[in-house]
């Protein structure tokens, strides 16, 4: 009996087990199917909403400072407000307050988010780079789907003053011009990333882990002296305004190191104001624009003359009657200077005198001098956009080319190259690489003109600034100045124009042991005066008066009859 009772019950149990064995996996398969296929989107959204996310952490961009550590470009923290359109949800009141804080219209915000939501976007900036305390107020509104992102904003404390050197970055903090562009890799650092836990509404609930720390960019010390930069800016701007000029450039070099101490242009721009960013304003004309140097190259014609052995300091050149015919052209001086020495050719800036020299020597040797002093080559300054200008190199020379090359036509240079060529005269013949980075210690150069000749030429250049020269307005009380004026007609549609000039002055001080070289180029002065001696030379004087005092350089020209104690006591 028992067997009979047991048999059905055990069969029943086996049946249950069999059913279970077969149905449980089936149920699991069905459930799995349900989870993986039917409910996939819903669950994934839910999961993602609570997921761990990796967000970028911006790196701090390095500072740009002047040679004394004064800031020229700094990065300050700012916050950007962004939304996840799919999660964003604000009450009317919240939207109103948000709009008010961000200085936007409620309708604007609504529309923007709605359109991004439709496009399926997960990220949209509402407002970038706002004050962190304002951003905090936005977060306190507790609007789902809104977050803040820490960024850095570039600020240029010197505004227009150092704008062309420093350059600027774009909204994403990437260098676009100037040092910001050239040294972008050095300054920028590397962004980090952070794991954060986000809630169902897309808000960052808590930072979980720093996956990668951001690495701040490195600071950069420039050779610029902010005080000299400011002086140069002020005086160049004044001259461009006063002479109604189209543009102007100026640069100061340290003779011992080849460092660029100041570099300015007009027109200028304020790098803190994006509306100012137009090429004609932000182009660093000192390195990007070339011109025919005109009479400022006459000292190098004299160098070639001395090197040829055909000329001595005492050689007399007859420039009467103040003009000369060369082929079909006539070369003119502004007056008849008669018999001249090399020194007076420089002091009075005689085109006829320079031409007579050039027609006596091998013209290829004059081009070689131009090459040696760095014309037609980059200065290695490290500034972006620098052009090389052009040398004159015909295979067959016509007399008129030989003549005009001697007083600066047929080649083109930048203001920076012109300054560097005078640095050769200032440093006993050494051609040095120029630099926009701070240099510590003496910078070696290559000897390209003999020390003896450069000394003789410096003496002649003193005559330019002394009474009777063309550059008297470059004089600096208490100092001997050596320099050269230049006034060149610009090339227009129909040859050399009669109303567009480039006025220049380039010089050095103290003349016997030069410490500073400065070049000034002013394009198209439209006022009463346009000679380099009237337009550019005064800029040299006013900047150098301040610069020599700031750098504590001792005067080398003491008054001839100093007031004595006896004289002061004479009133007794
Ligand atoms: C000049 C030229 C143009 C090019 C002449 C400037 C030539 C020439 C063909 C007349 C103004 C002017 C190749 S002058 O720089 O001689 O700086 O203080 O532009 O001569 O042959 O009404 N500079 N400038 N010449 N061209 N071609 C003098 C001189 C110079 C001065 C003044 C007066 C020219 C002293 C220039 C200055 O030294």
Quick recap:
With 572 residues, the protein is an alpha+beta fold.
Bound ligands? ligand 59J
Q: What's the helical proportion of residues?
A: 25-40%
Assigned CATH architecture of the largest domain: 3-Layer(aba) Sandwich
- In the predicted model, the low-confidence regions spanning at least 5 consecutive residues are none
Q: What is CATH's topology name of the largest domain?
A: Beta-lactamase
What proportion of the residues form beta strands (DSSP E)?
15-25%
Number of separate helices: 21
Name the CATH class of the largest domain: Alpha Beta
CATH superfamily of the largest domain: DD-peptidase/beta-lactamase superfamily
Question: Mind describing the biggest β-sheet?
Answer: 5 strands, mixed
Computed Rg = 37 Å
In total, how many domains does the architecture comprise? 2
The whole-number mean of residue pLDDT values reads: 91
* Shape, per Cα inertia axes: elongated
Helix-strand category:
alpha+beta
Strand element count: 23
Straight-line N-to-C gap: 158 Å
Could you characterize the architecture of this molecule?
The protein is an alpha+beta fold and 572 residues long. It folds into 2 domains: 54-221, Penicillin-binding protein 2a (Domain 2) (Alpha-Beta Complex), CATH 3.90.1310.10; 226-271 and 285-550, DD-peptidase/beta-lactamase superfamily (Beta-lactamase, 3-Layer(aba) Sandwich), CATH 3.40.710. The chain is 37% helix and 23% strand. The protein is built from 21 helices and 23 strands. Strands 2, 3, 4, 5 and 10 form a 5-stranded mixed beta sheet that branches. The protein has a 5-stranded antiparallel beta sheet with strand order 12-11-23-22-21, with helices on both faces. A hairpin with a 2-residue loop joins β15 (323-326) and β16 (329-332). α9 runs antiparallel to α20 (537-550), α12 (298-308) crosses α15 and α14 (351-358) crosses α16. The chain is elongated. The structure holds ligand 59J. Ligand 59J binds next to β21 and α19. Residues 294-295, 331, 334, 349, 351, 404, 409, 470, 485-489, 496, 531-533 line the site of ligand 59J.
């Amino acid at each position: 009996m028992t067997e009979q009772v047991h048999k059905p019950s055990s069969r029943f149990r086996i049946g249950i087990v069999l059913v279970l064995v077969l149905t449980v996996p089936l149920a699991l398969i069905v459930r799995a199917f349900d989870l993986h296929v039917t409910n996939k989107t819903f669950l994934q959204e839910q999961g993602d909403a609570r997921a761990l996310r990796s967000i970028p952490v911006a790196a701090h961009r390095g500072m740009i400072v002047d040679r004394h550590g004064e800031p020229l470009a700094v990065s300050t923290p700012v916050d950007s407000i962004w939304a996840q359109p799919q999660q964003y949800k604000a009450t009317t009141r919240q939207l109103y307050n948000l709009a008010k804080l961000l200085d936007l219209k409620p309708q604007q915000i609504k529309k923007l988010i709605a359109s991004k939501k439709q496009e399926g976007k997960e990220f949209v900036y509402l407002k970038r780079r706002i004050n962190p305390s304002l951003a905090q107020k936005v977060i306190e509104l507790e609007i789902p789907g809104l977050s803040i992102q820490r960024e850095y904003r570039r600020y240029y404390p010197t505004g227009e003053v150092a704008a062309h050197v420093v350059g600027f970055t774009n909204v994403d903090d990437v260098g676009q011009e100037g040092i910001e562009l050239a040294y972008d890799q050095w300054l920028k650092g590397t962004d980090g990333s952070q794991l954060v836990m986000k809630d169902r509404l897309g808000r960052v609930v808590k930072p979980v882990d720093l996956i990668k720390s951001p690495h701040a960019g490195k600071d950069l010390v420039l050779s610029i002296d902010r005080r000299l930069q400011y002086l140069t800016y002020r005086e160049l701007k004044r001259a461009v305004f006063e002479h109604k000029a189209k543009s102007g450039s100026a640069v100061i070099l340290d003779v011992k190191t080849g460092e660029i101490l100041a570099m300015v242009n007009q027109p200028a721009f304020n790098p803190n104001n994006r509306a100012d960013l137009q090429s004609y304003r932000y182009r660093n004309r000192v390195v990007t624009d070339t011109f025919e140097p005109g009479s400022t190259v006459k000292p190098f014609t004299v160098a070639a003359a001395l090197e040829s052995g055909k000329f001595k300091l005492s050689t007399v050149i007859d420039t009467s009657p103040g003009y000369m015919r060369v082929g079909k052209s006539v070369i003119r001086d502004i007056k008849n200077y008669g018999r001249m020495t090399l020194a007076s050719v420089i002091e009075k800036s005689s085109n006829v005198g320079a031409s007579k020299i050039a027609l006596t020597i091998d013209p290829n040797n004059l081009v070689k001098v131009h090459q040696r002093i760095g014309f037609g080559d980059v200065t290695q300054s490290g500034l972006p956009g620098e052009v090389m200008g052009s040398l004159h190199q015909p295979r067959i020379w016509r007399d008129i080319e030989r003549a005009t090359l001697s007083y600066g036509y047929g080649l083109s240079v930048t203001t920076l190259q012109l300054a560097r060529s005078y640095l050769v005269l200032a440093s006993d013949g050494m051609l040095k690489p120029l630099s926009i980075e701070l240099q510590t210690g003496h910078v070696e150069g290559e000897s390209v003109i003999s020390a003896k000749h450069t000394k003789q030429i410096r003496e002649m250049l003193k005559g330019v600034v002394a009474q009777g020269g063309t550059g008297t307005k470059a004089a600096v009380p208490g100092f001997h100045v050596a320099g050269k004026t230049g006034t060149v007609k610009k090339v227009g549609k129909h040859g050399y124009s009669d109303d567009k000039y480039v006025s220049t002055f380039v010089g050095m001080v103290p003349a016997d042991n030069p410490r500073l070289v400065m070049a000034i180029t002013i394009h198209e002065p439209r006022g009463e005066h346009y000679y380099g001696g009237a337009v550019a030379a005064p800029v040299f004087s006013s900047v150098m008066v301040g610069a020599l005092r700031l750098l504590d350089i001792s005067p080398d020209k003491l008054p001839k009859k100093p007031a004595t104690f006896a004289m002061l006591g004479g009133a007794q």
